[in-house]
Every structure is written in C-alpha cells, then in structure tokens.
Amino acid sequence: MNTFDPGFLWGAATSSYQIEGAADEDGRGPSIWDVFAARPGNVLDGSTGDVACDHYHRYRDDVALMAGLGLRAYRFSVAWPRVQPRGSGAVDQRGLDFYRRLVDELLSRGIQPWPTLYHWDLPQPLEDAGGWPARDTAPRFADYAAAVHDALADRVTNWTTLNEPWCSAFLGYATGEHAPGRREPAAAIRAVHHLLLGHGMAASAMSGSRVGITLNPTQASPATGSAEDLDAARRIDGVANRIFLDPLFRAAYPADVVEDLAGVTGFEHVRDGDLKVIAAPLDFLGVNYYTPAIVSGGGPAHPPGKPGAYVGSETVRFVDGGRPRTTMGWEVDERGLSDLLVRLARDYPVTELHVTENGAAYDDEVHDADRIAYLDGHLRACHDAVARGVPLRGYFAWSLLDNFEWAYGYTQRFGLVHVDFATQRRTPKDSARWYAEVIRRGGL
C-alpha cells in the first residue's frame, strides 16, 4: 500500500466567486468577475457566479459533507469585495462575520481552515483605478489582508496570500480570457510584480501566522533535443515559473527572462527594496497542478495579432503528447506532478510543500471512474515525490463541488460532489466515496 505519513493533510479546495453566490447581499461590492461575466461573450454559456453553488447560505450543509468525507482541511478563498466592498477604506463586518461563521463551523467538525486571501475576485473599484498593473493595488491588498487576519488569526493558523498569480496577470491582462479582460502584455508584466509585492506586504502584515503562496508552475518539456525546442522550454519555464519563483526565493528576476521581455518592458516598475519585500520567508509553498506541457520552437502558439499568455514567447508552439485528455482538453500525465515537485524541492529552498489543487473535469453525473483514475494516478505521483525526498505535507483535491468554472461557466465539472445547479442538490460522486476511503486508510 502507498501510505502517507500519519500527519499528512488531506483536504479539498474551492474559491469564493466559484461557489458562494449571494453576489449583492450583506454589502458585498462588485468584483472584476461580476463585471466580466456580465459582458456578453466572455463566458462560454453566458452564465455568472451570481448564485453559483449558493454556498453563502448553504455552508453548514457543505461543511457537513466535508466531515462525512473525513476531510482534515478545507482550502477556501475570502472574497475581497465581501470584506472591503470598494477595495479600500471601511471594512464590512457582515462580510467578515460570514468567514467567522464558516471557520467556526469547520473547527467544530475538526477540519482545519486554510483560507486564501486572493483567488482572482479583485474589487472592481480597484480595477477602475488601474488594477494589478497599478502599484497602489499592492498596499491595498496588504491592508485587506491585515483586516481579515485580525478577524480570524485567533482561529486560523495557515494563510495563503495569492492563488495562481500567473493566471491573474497573464490571463487577466495579456490574453483577456479572464477578468478584467484586458489585452496589454506590458501591463501583465507590471501585474506580476505588483501581485508579488502585494504578497510580500501582506506576509509582513500577518506576522505571527504561517504564511504561504500558491503557484501553478508549468512542467514544460522540449518536444525534441533540438536547440530550438530546448530554448522554447526555457522560455516557457521562465515566464510561467521562474518569473515568480526567483523573486520569492532569490529576491531577483531571472536575467534571461528580463532579456526575453526586453521588447515588452524594461522592468522600470521595479523599485529599490521591492524584491526584499517579495522574498519574505515562506512557511510553505502551494502547488496547483493539472497538466504538463510539451513545447517546440516551431511556430506561433496563438493566432497572429492576438496576445498570447506566455508573453515574450510568441514563437513557442505547444505540442500534443498523445495522452488521454480531460473535457478541458488538458492532457493527463501524473509523472509531470512528481517531476515538478522534485524540481521545486531541488532548485529552491522550499521547506514545506502542499499540492493545493489537483483534479480533472469530465462529463459525469455521479459515476466518475475517469476522475477516480486521475486522482489515483496523481496521488501515486505524490507518494513517489515523497519517496524522492520532497517535503510534501498535504494534498487538496480540486474541487469539493461542481462550480462556476470561470470562462467556461457551468460547462465543466471538477467536483467530488455533483451539484444540480437548478435545485442546488448535492450528491457525492463515486470519487468522493473513493477519496473518503483513501483518507481513512491514509493512502492508496
């Protein structure tokens, strides 16, 4: 049996905009996702997160579901516009009270709360003032983080500042596929820096607690051993991974990435002292992993004239590896997860890692053998990484519930628990029962 340490943390994850609903209740202000989703054509099925899974009203039932599965931890995100409707200034206690109630309910069931302070729902007034490409958003985030921390620090030990800043910066400001829908590559690079700066400022504001950040590194492999393909892998590794990891762990942007981006930005937005703030010591690093990437230097990765997500890597092409795919079109390769974890532990001074998201979307209702196979393979990859010396301490399945899947709306289901969005009925899938048994056994 592939067993894990008795202290290994078994959890599941969600995010605020994807499940909470109650979009205009108790003083909550608009987020960039409210505005983005309301614009025709931005979301595949024309839907919004206005109701989503109605978790705001059903959180007690959802926590009971978690307890029934034996979850030891629950990773959720706090909605900034619910706590601070304008992104600055007055804090709405009604918003904080919701998270106080949620945390208390989790603790009463023996489930550790793992809040993430930012999972993409920036208050719209801050976007109107420039968004993450504007430097002032970083201290505003630190102020918000301090307010939430002050309210919950007596009950919460582990805090994550940002979820996947790569998506926030590049999908939000380069390709426009995500909120706020801007296509400004230079702004995306500024957003990278100010997201990291906000993380560092927030970490300082939450001193005394355990603080980490969650990234979604890409395991990029060259299609062949040619110099062209090797350079393509280097470029993607640079703008997907090292542009975040090196400032966080080495207090510097990689020289080759700065050179790759010279035609986009000169990094004039980086001020003296910023990198020292960003490189504040981390208690843990969260890793979100879904699919690997095989890359080639053989041509454009996106249609001409349309900004790509990998700014500065316009000649890189993503290659089909011939593996099975999920309904998101993502190739399934669990080896990519173990190799990625080993690489992070080898190349950076990481003392504690958690897989903070891992899962798959399939066309399923309740019987989901494909998802079970996906999770089984990736948990075996985690076990392999531990055997190879990686300090992996926990695993959070994505996602607890079927939910609003960003620009895909409700067309993609990642949940361990099926949600009938018309009735809000929850039904645990076969994968939920399988995962509960994994937790009970402590392994596979």
Automatic annotation (TrEMBL):
An example Gene Ontology molecular-function term: beta-glucosidase activity
GO BP term, example: cellulose catabolic process
The keyword Hydrolase is annotated on this UniProt entry: yes
Keywords, comma-separated and alphabetical: Carbohydrate metabolism, Cellulose degradation, Glycosidase, Hydrolase, Polysaccharide degradation
Superkingdom of source: Bacteria
Broadest EC class assigned to this enzyme: hydrolase
Active-site residues, Swiss-Prot/TrEMBL: 164, 357
Annotated substrate binding sites: 18, 119, 163, 290, 398, 405-406
EC number: 3.2.1.21
Keyword Hydrolase: yes
GO CC term, one of those recorded: cytosol
InterPro entries: GH (IPR017853), GH_1_N_CS (IPR033132), Glyco_hydro_1 (IPR001360), Glyco_hydro_1_beta-glucosidase (IPR017736)
Catalytic activity reported: Hydrolysis of terminal, non-reducing beta-D-glucosyl residues with release of beta-D-glucose
Record family assignment: Belongs to the glycosyl hydrolase 1 family.
Family annotation (NCBIfam families): BGL
Name recorded for this polypeptide: Beta-glucosidase
Organism the protein comes from: Nonomuraea solani
